[in-house]
Amino acid sequence: MAEASRSSGARLESVPSQTLQLHIRPFFSPADCSAIRRSCRLGRDLITRAFMRRRITRFLENKQLLRLFAVDEPTQEGGMHPMAYLLGLMYVLEMAAAAEWQLWEAWLRTMRHIGGLTDTLPIRITAADVRQVASKAAFDRQPASLKQLMLFGHKLRGRDGNPMAVTPLDQQRHGRVGGAGITVCTKEDLPADHPFRASYKLEDPVCRVAGLTYSSVMDAVVCWMLPEGETAKVHRVTRNTIRQQQAAGIARVSKRGEERRRSRVIFLNGGAESDPFASYLRVTRRPNHAIIELMTTEEPVATNNNNTNNSNDTAGNVGGA
C-alpha cells in the first residue's frame, strides 16, 4: 500500500503543476482527493483547504443548494481535523447526488412551519454533523436519499418527537429513521400490479415504515414528520367524507398503501421562501369511503360561522374540501 502511494506520488510529480491544477485536479473524485493528499507532498499541495472550500461551494451553487445548506468554517473545535471535515462533507454531498438534493428544500420549508425542522434555513453544516455520519462502508450501502438524510436528519423531528437520525440499513435492508423502523424494498419485492412499482427509483426506493408502504424514502420521512391530527401549530380547517361511489378514483393518487387503506398528502402552501404558512390536504381511501382533511398552520380567524373550523364529517366531494 505504501509502495503504491509512493508510485502514485512519483507519477503526479512528473506532470507539470499547471496541467495538474487546471486540467486534472477538477476530475478527481472525493476518494481520489483523500488518497492523493495522503500519497505525497505534491498531493498535499494540490488538495488544500482552499481548494476543498471552492469545490464544495461550487457544488452547492451548481445544485442550487445555497438556500438549503451553509457550510461552517473548518476549525479544530469540532473534534475533527479541518481537512477531514471538508473531505468528509464533500464525499457525502457528491456521493449522495444520485437523488436530487434540491427536492428537500420545499419539504424543509414546509416542516419549519409545521414544527418538524428544529434548525433555521439554510441549515448550518458543522464538523459535528459530518462526524455523526455512518462509516464509509455503511454509508456506501445506503440509497442516495438515506445518504442525504444522514447529514441532517438529526435536525428534524418526527411526529413522536424523536430526532430523525438515521441508523443505516443492514444487509437485510432494515434500519431506523428516528424512532421508527424502516425497510427498503427492491423492485422485485413489489407485485407486478403494485401502484409504486412503475415509479420505483433505486436512488429513492419504496419503503415500509410502521406497517405502511411509501412510494419513496423521502415521502416516508415527510409523512412521518406530519402530525396525525391537530397540534399547537397545525389546525384542521375541514374534514369531508366521500361516499363509496364517489371515492372510486382516489386510489390512483395514493402515496402510501396498506391492503385496505391508501392515502396521499398534497401540499398546497409552505414550500416557497415567501410562504407565511403551510397547508396541505390529506386524502385517505378506505374500502367504502374516502376522507379528505384540509390542514393548515395559518392561525384561525374569528368568525360568526361555526363551521369555519369544523372537524366533523360532512358529505362532499374533492372540490368541497
Explain this structure to me?
Helix 3 runs antiparallel to helix 6. Among the domains are: 47 residues; 86 residues, no CATH class. Helices cover 33% and strands 18% of the residues. The chain is built from eleven helices and 13 strands. Strand 6 and strand 7 form a beta hairpin. The protein is α+β, with helices and mostly antiparallel strands. The strands form two sheets. The protein has an eleven-stranded mixed beta sheet.
Spatial strand order of the main sheet = 3-4-5-6-7-9-10-11-12-8-13
Shape: globular
Assembly form of the protein: single chain
Report strand %: 15-25%
> Major beta sheet, specifics?
11 strands, mixed
Structural class: alpha+beta
Order of helices and strands: HHHHHEHHEHHHEEEEEHEEEEEE
Q: How far apart are the first and last residues' alpha carbons, in Å?
A: 66 Å
Count of helix runs: 11
- Helical residues, percent: 25-40%
Instruction: State the total count of DSSP E strands.
Output: 13
Report low-confidence residues grouped into runs of 5 or more.
1-6, 247-254, 307-321
